[in-house]
Amino acid sequence: MEAPLKLWGGRFQEGPSETFQRFSWSLHFDRRLFEADIAGSKAWARALARAGVLTRPEAETICAALDRVPPPPPDAPDEDVHTYVIRMLGELAGGLASRLHTGRSRNEQVSLDTRLWLRGEIDRIAGLLRGLMGALLGQADAHVSTVIPGYTHLRRAQPVTWAHYLLAYFEMFWRDHERLAQTRQRVNRMPLGSGALAGAGFPIDREALARELGFDGITANSMDVSADRDWALDFLSAASLLMMHLSRLAEDWILYSSDEFGWLELSDGVTSGSSLMPQKKNPDSLELIRGKCGRVFGCFTSLFMTMKGLPLTYNRDMQEDKEPLFEAADQTAASLEMARAVVETARLRPEAARRAAAEGWLVATDLAEALARSGVPFHDAHRLVGRLVLESLRQGRQPQDWTGEELHAFDPRFTPEMARLLEPEEGLKTRAVPGGAAPQTVSAALEEARRRLESLS
Predict the structure, then answer these.
(1) What is the C-alpha to C-alpha distance for residues 156 and 454, in angstroms, rounded to an integer?
(2) Rounded CA separation 33/98 (Å)
(3) Using one digit for the tens of pLDDT, what is the confidence trace for 226-260?
(4) Confidence band of 23 (pLDDT split at 50, 70, 90)
(5) If 0-12 CB within 10 Å is exposed, 13-18 middle and 19+ buried, where does residue 407 land?
(6) Beta bridge partners of 448
(7) Active site residue 267
(8) How confident is the model at residue 1 (pLDDT cuts 50, 70, 90)?
(9) Would you call 245 a catalytic residue per the annotation?
(10) Please, which residues have CB within 8 angstroms of residue 78's CB and are 6 or more apart in sequence?
């Protein structure tokens, strides 16, 4: 095996021990940054030519050689992806390779490569998220008026519609998309020219570098570049919130598709069976999404704790940023793909959902509000309907078992026409405020959500 290249060493009489190499070298995971390192190195070569450090032919020779560098094999004898690229460049371009690192520190190089990689991952994840949001809207289209029970404290609370419920998750994911876009803005600042911490000692045109590499602008402080991983934490925070929302959706659908709830059917393609119990149809896809949420949370916590006590500027602890980033991006992307497949193939059982909404006095609030509209103080109306519910429980009666005349006989403040509110669809019609669950309001909200989603593409 070839001897590893080191970008340092003159100060040392002996090389690193084998134990230290195994402990500290990072090529086995940072090889993911290979394409970003090539792109950044080519841009740096051209920046050195503009600064007069290299001639234009020398820069072109380096760039052509960089295009020929193959991705690092698993057994490459190099400390990290950066030393691998320089070593291979030396084999292809000779002594010019040793000039490429002029004025450039690995500190800023790592920041650049990771930002370039993460920028692409954010774009990929945002695209997958839009796909899931579109799948939710597709499910909602057919169920603007389909009644389901809404819950608080995991107890049936008030009737809503399936479309209204799905739009609640659309809003969560919309905020996630906003957070990813905001994170991308902070990621997309060009750090090259910052040196190790004090800035480059050569007249590097940083703005030209930023334009060439597709950045929105340059970083403002060289020490901050060397010390900063806020942008990585921004992504991990955004990914954690996104995964939290996926986990909550997964939990809902695990429950709703259970025998105890029984009003959502998951497709065979996203479920599995039991090795022992022939009747089982398990929601493994959703359980795995719920489980992977913890892994992404752990990635955020890991880097957050790593950074909390570091003095300015760079410390080797910061090498520990990449594996959490890689892990979080992988798990978030995979979970989004899985969630979309679940949503696109799930089937609501409208009759069972409506039956659940009609039982258990979910219409109690509608009755209390009808009394309030007739002039009864709401606290009195609340107590009156509570007594009606208690009496119904004693008699084993559901809301639909009462007639208008029986309601009026129970208490004259109930008028016979209020009996129509014992059907969940009737009370829903009153919830027509913006953001409410009335079908006409939900229909408008669905159209608006579709316009918003289209604006992102």
Answers:
(1) 34
(2) 21
(3) 999 999 999 999 999 999 999 999 999 999 999 99
(4) confident
(5) buried
(6) none
(7) no
(8) very low
(9) no
(10) 4, 5, 25, 27, 72, 84, 87
Q: Taking a C-beta distance cutoff of 8 angstroms, is the pair 203, 197 a contact? A: no
Dist CA 363 CA 361 (whole Å): 5
Q: Report the 10 Å Cβ neighbour count for 93.
A: 22
217-218 and 264-265 as β-strands: parallel, antiparallel, unpaired? unpaired
Which residue reads 């410390």 in tokens? 315
d(C-alpha 324, C-alpha 307), whole Å: 13
- Tell me the per-residue pLDDT of 410-435, one tens digit each, with 9 for 90 and over: 999 999 999 999 999 999 999 999 99
> Rounded to the nearest 5°, which phi and psi values hold at 395?
-90, -10
Q: Could you say which of 24, 258, 274, 374 is catalytic?
A: 274
User: Tokens 């598709």 correspond to what residue?
Assistant: 257
Active-site position among 153, 275, 455, 457? 153
Q: Pick the closest to residue 317 from 328, 327, 303 (CA basis).
A: 303
The alpha carbon of residue 44 and the mean position of all alpha carbons in its chain are separated, in whole angstroms, by: 33
Q: In whole angstroms, what is the distance from residue 196 CA to residue 201 CA?
A: 11
Which pair of structure tokens corresponds to residue 267? 């497709």
The rounded distance, in Å, linking the Cα atoms of 146 and 159 is: 10
Q: How far is CA 412 from the centre of its chain?
A: 54
The three state secondary structure string of the chain is: CCCCCCCCCCCCCCCCCHHHHHHHCCHHHHHHHHHHHHHHHHHHHHHHHHCCCCCHHHHHHHHHHHHCCCCCCCCCCCCCHHHHHHHHHHHHHHHHHHHCCCCCCHHHHHHHHHHHHHHHHHHHHHHHHHHHHHHHHHHHHCCCCCEEEEEECCEEEEEEEHHHHHHHHHHHHHHHHHHHHHHHHHHCEECCCCCCCCCCCCCCCHHHHHHHCCCCEECCCHHHHHHCCHHHHHHHHHHHHHHHHHHHHHHHHHHHCCCCCCCEECCHHHCECCCCCCCCCECHHHHHHHHHHHHHHHHHHHHHHHHCCCCCCCCHHHHHHHHHHHHHHHHHHHHHHHHHHHHHHCEECHHHHHHHHHCCCCCHHHHHHHHHHCCCCHHHHHHHHHHHHHHHHHHCCCHHHCCHHHHHHHCCCCCHHHHHHHCHHHHHCCCCCCCCCCHHHHHHHHHHHHHHHHHHC
Q: Is the pLDDT of residue 25 over 50?
A: yes
In single-letter form, the type of residue at position 53 comes to V
Partners of 149 in the β-ladder: 159
Residue type, 113: D
Residue 391 has which token pair? 């009496």
